[in-house]
# Entry
Amino acid sequence: MGDSGDSPSATAEHSSPNSLGKRPHRHDKRSRKKRKLLLSSETETCIRIQTIKPDSTRTFCSYTRKHTDSHFQRQDRIRTKSRRNHSWQQRKWTYSQQHHLSNYKDRVVIVSYNILGVENSTKHPELYRDVSPKYLDWEYRKKILCKEVKGYQPSILCFQEVDHFDDLNEILAKDGFRGVYKARGGETCDGCAIFWKTELFTLLHEENIEFQRFGLRNNVAQFCVLKMNQDPSSDEATERRSSRATTSRSLLVGNTHVLYNPKRGDIKLGQMRVLLEKAYELSQEWGCIPTVITGDLNSLPQSAMYQFLASSKLHIHEHDRKEISGQIIPSTYTAYRSPHYMTRHFKNRWTDEEIMLATGSKRSCVKHHLNLCSAYAEVPGSSNVRDEIGEPLATSYHSLFSGTVDYIWHTLDLVPVKVLETLPMHTLEKTGGLPSKEWGSDHLAVVCELAFTDEGLEQD
# Structure
C-alpha cells in the first residue's frame, strides 16, 4: 500500500472547492464529515475482518495494520500474563468444615505428584496420541512442574516417576528445598523422591524399601522422619518446647509408586502390606509420631486396595485377584462389598503362592495397624470434581485412562485443613490429554494442608 498521501481523504481534499481558496460551503463541510465517518467505518471493518481472518490478504492502510498489530500484541500480553499463574489458579482450595481449625497452629502442606518419567513418556507413545511433542519435552516440563508446585506453597513434596532427580534438586534448592531419592531396580531408571522445606523441617531419619527383596517386583518406597523446626523468636514456640514431648512435632512421611500391572493384585497388595508394616514400625520407633502415606497406588477409590487402606484389613478370598486395584472393571464391580461373594464366583482364584505374596503368610486375611484416613475423603467437595466416596474424579488423564490413582493418607493425629481440588472432567477433556501446555505431567498433583492435633499430649 502507498503512504498516507494517497489515502482517500487526501484525494477528495484536492478536488474540493476549498482547494481553490474559496470559503467552504456548509454542504461541503457535511460532505467531508460524512466521508470521514465513512473512512472510520471502513477502517473498523478492516480491523474486524483481520480479527476474524488473520490469514487473509492484507489490503488495508498502514494505520489499520498498525492499530491491528498493537491490538493482537496487547491480547498476547494479556494471555501471557494469565498463563504465568494459570496452573494453580485453575485449581481451588476446599476447606474443612468439621474442625475448629483455629485451634490447630502447626500445619504442613503436602504435595504428592507423579511427574511422568521421561523414559516412560517415550516408551509409551500410545498414551499421548494427541499431545504435542514439545509438551512431552523434559526441558519444558521440568520448568512448569516446579513452577506449579511452588505456587502451592508446599512444606513437603513427594514425587513419583522421577528419573531426573538432579534437575529437580537444582531447581527446588533455590526455593529452600532439600531432597532424597530412591531409584527402582531392574531395567527401569525412575524412582521416588521426597523434598522438604529446610526452614520448616530437619531430617532425622531416612529409610527405603526395595520390594524385590520380598519377591514383589522392583518398585520402591521411601520414608523420612522430619522434625518441625521451632521459631526461636516465638514465645509460643518456647512454650510448646517446654510443655510437649520432643517427638510431638515430628512426622513420618512415606512415598511410593505401586506396581501398575492390573492383573497382579497379589503383588500390588503385597507391596502395600510391606509398606504399611514398615510405616507402623517406624512411627512406633520414633514415639508414635503422626504418619502420612502418599503416592501413585495404581488403584481406584472403589477398589479392594482402597478398602484395605481405609479399614485396615482385607479378606482376599472375597475378591478376584485381577480386580484388587479396580483397574479392570467388571460388570459386578461393587460386588466386593458383599461378604456373600465367595471364591466360586471368581474367574481368577488365588494360588498358595499368590496368597503368600499378598498376605506374607498362608492366611487369607491381610491386615495393617495404622488407622488411616484419606485427606480428600474427609473434606466434602463438589460432585463437579469428586466421586461418591469423596476422592477426586481424576488424578490421571491420557489417551487410554481417566481416573484417580493418587492419594494422601494420614493417621488420626493429623486433621485436614484444606485440600486442593483437581480439574472438572470437561476441563480435562478440552486438553485432549495430559501433559499439556499448562500441565507438566499426565497426572495432577494431589495437595492438602494437614494440622497436628494435640490429643494425648500433656498440657501446662
